[in-house]
Specification:
Structural class: alpha+beta
Strand content: over 45%
CATH architecture of the largest domain: Beta Barrel
Order of helices and strands: HEEEEEEEEEEE
Strand order of the largest sheet: 5-7-8-9-10-11-1-2-3-4-6
Number of domains: 2
Low-confidence stretches: none
Radius of gyration: 20 Å
CATH topology of the largest domain: Lipocalin
CATH class of the largest domain: Mainly Beta
Number of strands: 11
Number of helices: 1
Length: 155
């Protein structure tokens, strides 16, 4: 009986440690989850960003988009939040991306194609349920165009 109690106690302790580790891992970065672009475009238009843990302190970003004509695109990259460029994979015009942390709520994302660098200022709301992006894009003639988008947490 004592051996079975010890085994049960060890099992319970391991289960509690695993549950605690999962909660800590999930809460490590408040951006982890799925985010939907807020848009007035008619269906089937859709843009979903997914932020997942990568390595010990990084993040994997995946964007799945469907145009209003039903054309699907998917691309993504990983970051360690160190400002180092890493390859973008999938259906994207961007060759490499880098992310720097500005403060607790703000990331600076740099998307590079050739010599051009487009910047996204990515700001997480205080309640953690909205991300506002400011896009600073440079066209082939060197002209800057600024636009904005809002993503809402869906998971």
């Amino acid at each position: 009986m004592r051996l079975s109690n010890r085994i049960a106690m060890i099992g319970l302790t391991l289960a509690m440690c695993l549950a605690t580790a999962l909660v800590v891992a999930e809460n490590k970065n408040p951006r982890f989850g799925k985010w939907k672009l807020k848009s007035d475009n008619p269906a089937p238009y859709l843009n979903i960003m997914t932020y997942e843990p990568h390595g010990e302190s990084g993040m994997k970003i995946t964007i799945d988009a469907t145009s209003s004509k039903g054309e699907k695109r998917s691309w993504g990259y990983v970051t360690e939040f160190d400002g180092k460029y890493r390859p973008v994979t999938g259906d994207s015009n961007t060759e490499v991306s880098a992310v720097e942390v500005v403060d607790d709520q703000t990331n600076k994302i740099m998307n590079k194609t050739g010599d051009r660098v487009n910047v996204i200022i990515n700001v997480l709301s205080e309640d953690g349920n909205t991300i506002k992006n400011e896009y600073r894009n440079i066209d082939a003639d060197g002209n800057e165009r600024i636009s904005h988008a809002v993503y809402e947490r869906i998971q």
